[in-house]
Hints:
8-stranded mixed sheet
Amino acid sequence: MSPPRIDVHLLTLDEPGHWREECLASLAGAPIRLHRLPGIPGRVGKARAAGFARGTLALVSFVDPDDRYEARAFAHLADALDACPSAVLAYTDEALMDEDGRPLGVRRLAYSAFQHAHSASHVHGLIVMRRSAVEPVLTRIADLDADADWLLTRLVARQGSVLHLPLVGRHWRQHPNQHHRRALPDRRAMTHLERS
Length: 196
């Protein structure tokens, strides 16, 4: 087992326990230090900020308890960031699966700054970022809910280059209770960007 290279947080809410266990099992062997925290209903940004505050490793990430991950992808992302000091964020493609975990296809997500600015699900696979780029912007996402992750990746991307690895790192479960299906878009995210 290799030493941890990435602090990763997992926010739990009301997801089925067997989904959470599948998520945790999929992380076995990943070079991560996992921090489990309770989510905050309606306050994803505040919960994320608490998650990113955990640990001291130079790289950070997050996982969602209703999804599954490719453990080896964490090392590939960390290696890519190590090899490119100007990069602040690296991410993978993602596979879609139905509510029961059956495959639905793969989303290929080669980076486009234009797409990132206009689609919350463009930088959306497994994402690893530099702590030094994340910490200064956490106060900007703390009062957001549905758009907190999107705003975070956009603010981080402004600080350096973005790397896309063409491999599946995340298996994104599609189900009616997904947060983005229940929460309303928060236009405050765009206001936060305009202030920069």
